[in-house]
Amino acid sequence: MNLLTLAQARTILDATLASARAHGYKPMGVAVVDAAAQLVICAREGGASALRLDIAQGKAGAAVGMGVNTRVLAQRARDLPAFFGAVSTVAAHKFVAQTGAVLILDPQGDVLGAVGVSGGTGDEDEQIAIAGVAAAGLAHG
Fold first, then answer.
1. pTM for the full predicted model
2. Arch. (CATH architecture) of 6-140
């Protein structure tokens, strides 16, 4: 089993923030977690509001915890609000089922972790998360 390295996580974080700056998006919070939803690295840009890291980590944790990106989870949450409310209450880690996190996959398609972003729209958050994963030479899911 491959593990997400700190060097890979740092590359993802840096490239995600660079993509946000290149697109002129609002200040972001980015969290990269491993396959157990444990925080590997995070950063909040100056000017990003206080909850950005909590939300980013919650998105990443939700993606890892459910094994899909949070765009899929957001739709499922709309369809099953009671279930997702219960999951967010009982989860041992932060759990935010909103668009803005993608899984980080190794070349075999195994989950290494996830990157969650908060600060822009869900589409913007997801777009720069994907750019970050790609910059590390990994796939997203």
1. 0.95
2. 2-Layer Sandwich (3.30)
